């Protein structure tokens, strides 16, 4: 059944009016989900809604300023910069779930302070179906899934959560955003996780890794924005790896496994496993797919293939990820032209001499998740 935004708004309007009987803070991350939820709430409830974007320090380059400018005709977005607090609290943490949960704690403590400041009683956020499905399934903790886990937000943080998009999937959210009049830059915007670049700094968090991946993200988005891919981004992880003779023999390619780990989904449950690099002498995506399927039969959750060598003294790998999907519950990797990947890699290598290599992720979802953490 096709999604009808008019019918959806007709159904959600009385629900919102009934639930929100006082002021509400609408949390905007810059992604399409939260921005659409805030715009919808502001259109239906007017000045009862206070749209706020928290600059956590994990946003993309100039993100807060860009988003504020893009939605200026739709709602009066305020930006609150707490980046130093978030960075100091998360620096050095390396476990994916620990990072997500710490981010959630900091994020909602900040929102709690803002709710009190504006004498509000409600928090409106852009949780969608894929968020709570993955969290309830134990695959990974989405920072904006609270009520579905039995968390009493009113007792813990002093506000009730309102989630007008909780039953929608990404493609439906985009349709709603278009109908609401959000600019194309928003409804076609690259999906961006609530914890932002935090979950694209795989493993230990450092300010150096964060700044490198921030620049790499801008480069990947610049080159791939004209392609019809569902999502594309860069990740960074420590480049230390070891040759695996057993897997190499099985698949007929040299296979190396990194010390860094990434989140996957196997048998509908969370898997936190190794990242593997296959070094094959061909660039045939279907042959690489078959290799990936064999490699991930073990505890490996993400498989990458090398695109370009960087600096011998480098200590980081930059991964490029691009996928095709309808609902973000399953996804296929995009078959990016190898020449284009080469151009992207060359520009990424100019960021820092600490980049040892650039690799491309050739894993489907499942067994990988779209993000690495």
Automatic annotation (TrEMBL):
Keywords: ATP-binding, GMP biosynthesis, Ligase, Nucleotide-binding, Purine biosynthesis
Pfam families: GMP_synt_C, NAD_synthase
GO molecular function list: ATP binding; GMP synthase activity
Keyword Cell wall biogenesis/degradation in annotation: no
A GO term from the CC aspect: cytosol
Pathway linked to the protein: Purine metabolism; GMP biosynthesis; GMP from XMP (L-Gln route): step 1/1
Cross-referenced Gene3D superfamilies: 3.30.300.10, HUPs
Catalyzed reaction equations: XMP + L-glutamine + ATP + H2O = GMP + L-glutamate + AMP + diphosphate + 2 H(+)
Coiled-coil ranges (or none): none
Keyword Nucleotide-binding included in the entry's annotation: yes
Residues spanning the signal sequence: none
PROSITE patterns: GMPS_ATP_PPASE
Record domain GMPS ATP-PPase: where: 3-189
Chain residues that bind ATP: 29-35
EC number(s) given by UniProt: 6.3.5.2
Described purpose of this protein according to its UniProt entry: Catalyzes the synthesis of GMP from XMP.
Assembly and oligomerization: Heterodimer composed of a glutamine amidotransferase subunit (A) and a GMP-binding subunit (B).
Protein's UniProt name: GMP synthase [glutamine-hydrolyzing] subunit B
Organism: Stygiolobus caldivivus
Lineage: Archaea, Thermoproteota, Thermoprotei, Sulfolobales, Sulfolobaceae
Designated gene of the protein: guaAB
């Amino acid at each position: 059944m096709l999604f009808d935004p008019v019918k959806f708004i007709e159904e959600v309007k009385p629900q919102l009016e009934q639930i929100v009987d006082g002021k509400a803070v609408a949390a905007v991350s810059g992604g399409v989900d939260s921005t659409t939820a805030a715009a919808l709430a502001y259109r239906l409830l007017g000045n009862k809604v206070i749209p706020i974007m928290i600059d956590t320090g994990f946003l993309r380059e100039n993100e807060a300023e860009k988003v504020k400018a893009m939605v200026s005709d739709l709602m009066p977005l305020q930006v609150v910069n707490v980046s130093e607090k978030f960075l100091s609290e998360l620096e050095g943490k390396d476990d994916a779930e620990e990072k997500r949960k710490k981010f959630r704690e900091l994020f909602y403590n900040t929102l709690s302070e803002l709710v009190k400041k504006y004498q509000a009683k409600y928090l409106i956020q852009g949780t969608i179906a894929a968020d709570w499905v993955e969290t309830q399934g134990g695959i990974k903790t989405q920072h904006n899934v609270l009520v579905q886990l039995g968390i009493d937000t009113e007792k813990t943080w002093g506000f009730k959560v309102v989630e007008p998009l909780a039953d929608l999937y990404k493609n439906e959210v985009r349709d709603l955003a278009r109908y609401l009049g959000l600019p194309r830059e928003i409804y076609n915007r690259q999906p961006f996780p609530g914890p932002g670049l935090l979950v694209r700094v795989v493993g230990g968090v450092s300010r150096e890794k964060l700044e490198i991946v921030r620049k790499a993200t801008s480069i990947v988005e610049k080159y791939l924005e004209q392609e019809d891919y569902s999502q594309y981004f860069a990740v960074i992880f420590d480049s230390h790896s070891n040759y695996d003779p057993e897997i190499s023999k099985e698949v007929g390619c040299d296979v190396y496994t990194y010390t860094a780990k990434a989140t996957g989904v196997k048998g509908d449950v969370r898997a936190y496993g190794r990242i593997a690099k296959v070094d094959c002498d061909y660039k045939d995506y279907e042959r690489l797919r078959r290799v990936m399927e064999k490699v991930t039969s073990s505890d490996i959750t993400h498989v990458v293939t090398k695109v370009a060598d960087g600096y011998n003294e480098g200590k980081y790998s930059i991964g490029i990820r691009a996928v095709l999907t309808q609902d973000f519950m399953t996804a296929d990797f995009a078959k990016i032209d190898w020449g284009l990947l080469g151009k992207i890699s060359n520009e990424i290598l100019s960021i820092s001499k600490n980049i040892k290599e650039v690799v491309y992720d050739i894993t489907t979802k499942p067994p990988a998740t779209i993000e690495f953490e």
